[in-house]
Amino acid sequence: MSGGLLVAGTTSDAGKSVVTAGICRWLRRRGVSVAPFKAQNMSNNSAVVVDADGRGGELGRAQAMQAAACGLAPDLRFNPVLLKPGSDRSSQVVLLGQAVDTIDAANFRALRPRLAETAFTALAELRSRYDVVVCEGAGSPTEINLRDADYVNLGLARHAGLPTVVVGDIDRGGVFAAMFGTLALLDAADQALIAGFVINKFRGDPGLLRPGLDMLAAVTGRPTYGVLPWNVDLWLDAEDSLAYGRVLGRPGPPRGTQWLDVAAVRLPRISNATDLEALAVEPGVRVRLTVEPAELDAADLVVLPGTKATVEDLDWLRRTGLAEAVLRHAAAGRPVLGICGGFQMLGRSIEDGVESGRGRVPGLDLLPTEVAFQRRKTVTRSTGSAFDGIPVHGYEIHHGRMVGAGSGASPFLRYADGTGEGAVRGPVFGTHWHGAFGADPFRRRFLTEVARLAGRAGFRVAPDTSFAGARERTLDLLGDLVEEHLDTDRLWRLIESGPPPGLPFVPPGAPPAPAG
């Protein structure tokens, strides 16, 4: 067979990524050869793929997660177009893993045919190789101002003949209006591909929804395939959920007598925040994303995560008073960690003629390092060791490269050949490696050192926590939720046979069915 499905959503963060992953895991359990696909992703959270020639490329983090749900290694064709926002008006274009251009409103129309052709070709190749390809849309399919240039939502579905289900987030409220409105604003040819709906993030008794589901079916002629419940354990790789003040996950109780409190700065252009998730899986470690200097003052560990706009976010750090809070923290001998762009901020200076074009700007001067941006981006996977030879692995995505280091600092990590990477001086740590804290022994050793520096003698790491295991349990949970709460028989027929014929056209403003 060569089946397919498009999972669209009424909004961003409606749950398209996790529903797609859950359907992928369910199909894999059925013995189906299945792959994920997202024609275009706009995100600064990315994963690295290294091809047979050793060349590294990027794809969206969500598609790497969905690949794992399928039991596959990430493939750049799973996300052929990745847009990485550097400002509110422009994004770096990553095409089949390689940065090729910068896109803005002025040149999108000119670039669009190339992007669409790349996406359509990648999908065709995947459909020739796998039994089923589960595609994820982007944003909402009813962005009618962009419909004529769309190749991600119903433009993709029209091109490939994909049946489409629309996911709505009931936790936001207004889900029935959002689902009806999504359908009603589409033209007849697009509506013919919308086969039905999925309600996501419901809290309570699904029986209470029955009158609404029946009315939605009556006014649209389309069923709801199921109601997925809210689940607090679905937080890993949730790239749209990095809200201010949010505690990542559900921290388990400490193994010792004290907690370890981690405050991570929610930078405006934060990237690859999955580094924080690895810390948050540890029992007794509370990780909060924040923009409040007072929360940095109260924390045991302050983290400056990655960013797509290092110099601009460093300016923002200074304007908001957060830079002073980071400096106070380090001056008190309490630990600070910088990852990728956050590491670059901790040094003496940044020479940037690539992202911001600002030239030489001062850093926070907490590490005796100097960074220069180069146009050719480093995109690679890395292995090595840390501390007393503890194995560590990760990946690198950055334009900035360390070009100088003064005295008083030691490497934080070492590559497999023994070359030093990153820097440590006193309580301040920095590395360009993303994903390093997913290595369980290294993470435990680092957190033990953090607890010592923070004066948390009662904190103990858990010897059995597995980050990879936590992620796999999340994927299994998604598969369980799909099997238990969706009409999988009907969903299978949809994937196998395509859009049902004769679906009615619903004009905007169609009156509701009479009660009773």
UniProtKB/TrEMBL annotation:
Residues annotated as domain CobQ/CobB/MinD/ParA nucleotide binding: 6-235
UniProt KW Repeat keyword: no
* Keyword Plastid listed: no
UniProt keyword list: Cobalamin biosynthesis, Glutamine amidotransferase
CobB/CobQ-like glutamine amidotransferase domain sequence ranges: 261-441
Q: Which domain of life is it from?
A: Bacteria
One Pfam family hit: GATase_3
Could you name the active-site residues?
A: 340 (nucleophile), 434
Name the pathway it acts in: Cofactor biosynthesis; adenosylcobalamin biosynthesis
Q: Which CDD domains match?
A: CobQ_N, GATase1_CobQ
InterPro entries for this protein: Class_I_gatase-like, CobQ/CobB/MinD/ParA_Nub-bd_dom, CobQ_GATase1, CobQ_N, CobQ_synth, GATase_3, P-loop_NTPase
Q: Which family does it belong to?
A: Belongs to the CobB/CobQ family. CobQ subfamily.
Give a short account of what the protein does: Catalyzes amidations at positions B, D, E, and G on adenosylcobyrinic A,C-diamide. NH(2) groups are provided by glutamine, and one molecule of ATP is hydrogenolyzed for each amidation.
Q: What is this protein called?
A: Cobyric acid synthase
Which taxonomic lineage is given here? Answer: Bacteria, Bacillati, Actinomycetota, Actinomycetes, Micromonosporales
